[in-house]
Amino acid sequence: MRVRSASSTLRWPALVPPKAHKVHALWVQLIQGQGLTATALQALQDKQLAARLVHAAQHSTHFAPQLKGVQIVPENAREVLARLPLLGRADLQTQAESIYCATGPWHGAVQEKRTTGSTGQPVVVRCTDAAFDLREAITLRNFAGFGMDVRQSFAAIRSGVAKGHPEGISRPGWGGVIGQLFVTGPSHALDLATPVEQQIAWLEKHRPTYLLTYPSNLQLLMSMGLRAWSGLQGILTVGENVSDELRQNVHTCLKAAVWDQYSCEEAGHLAAQCSAGQYHVPSENVLLEVLREDGSACLPGETGRVVVTDLRNFASALLRYELRDYAELGSTCSCGRHSPVLRRMLGRTRQQIHLPDGRKVWPSTGLRNFVDVPLRQFQLVQLSLHRLELRVHTDRELTPQEKIRIVETVQTALGHPFDIEVVNSLQALPLGPGGKFEQFVSLV
To answer: Which residues on adjacent β-strands are paired with residue 303?
Structure first.
């Protein structure tokens, strides 16, 4: 990564713009911190957590009564945090003003970030420049960890970019702080709403070295005929869960690696995959808990609810904020880094199927191996404890016999004789807010 100078006369050493300089300084610290032991990382995180709790006690009317009279120091910060009740999305909707906090000059300007509200509950989070700068630096660390060469070309197909530009947008360099900091290759962006056939033609035209998109869109692209091109090295996935099957399909069809990142709009980066396949939590940005249903902490190998405490953004006191995601806690990673790890993400609460006996399970449809008819997309929606709706995107109308075999396949995979209605569409299935696509949704 060769640093780009903002001056045509001060070429070397490079003159870095102020904002990019802050991000670069943070990035250097993050890279240096990767060699720290687990004990050293926890000690640094405890110091930051203590400062975070003290600030919330002083400036958040939501948390001030809960922390009143409590002496908070690094040595007891985790214990104090653990006594706080979980903060839910509804709390952030109805009590936002009590969660917002005043900040000092070192935190920079404050701006509002509105989530897409994929579950019908959008929220507004206030976020500081200091928090955004760290998120940019973590992006840099992730890209470096993936082994990406920023001198190569980059393309993104996602929601909210290149709107009003049906042919997409191309630039001579990468956008954001990366483009300000380093000498980069060209970049391209295309709106996710572009028809899939046009997306494929666009990719074949630009043939980027790196592609960023959502897992569901990636799967749809391959089902519609996208194949490998010379120079493709890696695909970054965001916003949705990545299945082992999708990874294998990408390896087989596109001859590329999948680099997955886990984040949320409210707190930014939550984890990114390393070379060993586990997801490393950025200790500098969040303290992440994985909890059992009774609220106790999960052990490695157990699956539980994801709860995060934002350590950097002092404008919103997101302390023990429950994301309604589920993850499996990992253990010591063979890659050599000592930050906390998640083994895998399983999805949101509403992506579990409710069985009539009261159990909830992560659904498997068996449709990936259904070869009778090419299913471009499918979405399973639970309408009640006994009724499901299976929405499928195909190239032609299914016959009654094919629908019967599809229903039998899904019933066998789920292990329960649900009443399943197949809804056949010759068009791509609609995306949710923010461009995300949920393959399983429970309305129970």
So the answer is: 328
Q: One-letter amino acid identity for 68?
A: K
Query: What pLDDT digit, counting tens, does each position of 338-361 carry?
Result: 999 999 888 766 567 888 888 777
Cβ proximity of 255 and 228 under 8 Å: yes
pTM: 0.83
How far apart, in whole angstroms, are the C-alpha atoms of residue 255 and residue 150? Answer: 20
> CA 383 from chain center: how many Å?
27
Rounded CA separation 272/282 (Å): 8
Q: What is the DSSP string of 338-396?
A: -S-EEEEEEEEGGGSEEPTTS-EE-----GGG--SS--SEEEEEE-SSSEEEEEEE-SS
Residue (of 67, 100, 127, 85) closest to 322 by Cα position = 85
pLDDT in tens, 54-74: 999 999 999 999 999 999 999
Contact (Cβ atoms closer than 8 angstroms) between residue 271 and residue 323: no
- At 369, list the tokens: 């191996």
Alpha carbon distance 177, 25 (integer Å):
12
How far, in Å, are 407, 408, 421 from residue 367 at the CA level?
Answer: 10, 10, 15
Q: Which domains does the chain have, with CATH numbers?
A: 353-442 (3.30.300)
